[in-house]
Amino acid sequence: MTVLLWGRAGEPIVEAVARACGRLGVEALAVDGDELLSVDMCGGMALRDGRRIDLGSVSGVLVRPSGRAQSPEGLQACRALHAWTELTTVTVLNRLSAASSNHSKPYQLGQIAESGFAVPETLVTTDPDDVREFCAEYDPVVYKSISGVRSIVAVLNPADEDRLTNISTCPTQFQQYVGGTDHRVHVVGGLVFACRVDSTAIDYRYAEQADGLTALTAVKLSDDIADRCMALTKSLSLGLAGIDLRLDGQGTWWCFEVNTAPGFTWFEEQTGLPIADAVAKMLRGPR
Amino acid sequence: MLLILGSAYDAQPWRLAERWMQAERDVAVATPSDLSRPGWRLRVGRPTLTRAAVGERVIAGHSIDAAINALAWIGPHDLAHVDSMDRDYVAQEMLSFLLAWEQELRCLVVDRPTSRSLTGCGRTDLEWVAIATCVGVDTDVSWAGPSAAVTVVGGSAIVEQGSVSLANAAEAMARAAQRSLVTLRFSSGSRPVFVGAEARPEVGHDDVAFALLEWLERS
Lengths: 287, 219
Known about the structure:
The complex is a heterodimer.
Chain A lengths: L1 E5 L5 H13 L2 E5 L4 E4 L4 E4 L4 E3 L3 E6 L8 H16 L3 E3 L2 H4 L5 H9 L8 E4 L2 H11 L2 E4 L9 E2 L16 E5 L4 E8 L2 E9 L14 E6 L3 H13 L4 E8 L5 E7 L5 H7 L3 H10 L3
Parallel strand pairs in A: 1-2, 1-6, 6-7
Antiparallel strand pairs in A: 3-4, 4-5, 8-11, 9-10, 9-11, 12-13, 12-15, 13-14, 15-16
Helix pairs in contact in A: 1-8
Chain B lengths: L1 E4 L5 H12 L4 E4 L10 E3 L7 E4 L2 E4 L5 E4 L17 H18 L3 E2 L15 H10 L3 E2 L7 E7 L2 E3 L5 H13 L4 E7 L5 E5 L8 H13 L1
Parallel strand pairs in B: 1-2, 1-6, 6-7, 8-12
Antiparallel strand pairs in B: 4-5, 9-10, 9-11, 11-12
């Protein structure tokens, strides 16, 4: 059996899972869209270098954004491979139909709210007056992109008042700021890997850019919270998820987002949590 | 009030609105450029605060009786009023907004949007082929010859008289795909052969427009 790593060779996640497959003695094949010549859903994949892969021999697929194609042949083959990943019964981490839920943060937040986690009050609007009312109720307020486009979360300041009229051009997302300690939880099937994030920045991913510091520490979640993370992952039809949680001073767990193609290597390197091994085992399937 | 979401460059939603206005219904067509008007509001988990801004109208979410998506996605071409450097980003933001905004509507939303398409489906041709195969309909998505569009509204195919096999094939596929409103294409011939699905339903034809109105008012 072969584990298909649909992503660019050299990308950290692809490399980490390939190495983990090697440790398990499982063959892993990394392929990006532009290496594909054609995909026959009933047969196999033809690669530009002449190799053919029988899709029937694939035990699991890791789908990475870096696997996207640019060439016309690659785009066509990727469409066929996407269709196959939607229809196959083998493990796919994650199917596009499920992974695209975080292309809209407020859409996903609505789904998260049903999982039992607290979610921050969220406003998306084209009306500056709505923002002023929201700020009056929930100060401080942060703003960030609505779509999956990465944006740096920033606090709305009085100095931003002059720019508020700009939101009439495009709906803009504002959110109640919730203080507390960030936790990043990776769920891989039935396994939960959690770490605490201590950071000097509002958005810990960009702490270094603001001359700040971020430290990651592996932690064990209570069974209740771990179960909630697994249930949330399952409810979003995901097998692999990176869940952004924050624990406030009153002991409430808030959930902000579920990353459906999580870049977990940074967390793994800092904490030693064996996330790539768990992904490889899941893609290999039961023995 | 009936809300139709459509592109300014697509005649279908406007024809639908025209037919419904002729039937004396209150109708508004929201296009991507309307999302650049003050008044749109979404509060996650607070549907009573949902609001739209269409033309000169600001519409409370609770006054919308039904929403119909004749817009599969928003592209930069829909946003001529936005600086060309920003169009891709704004298109993604608007698309993501509409996806979430429509979830908060408590009225009937025909084929509620999913993260793959505002029309609620977003299946690739190959996924449609799998559905067709499951319900016993022949397929040929490489077909480049003449084809007939069949729109299914609430389980019933709108086809010319005498095309029973075409109607049966389209209805079976729509049912298997759990679509209330979908336009499927079949090649001409004695047996229905599925050749593709429209990204958004063709709602502008008289018979489809009135069947849809009747179905909405019955639902």
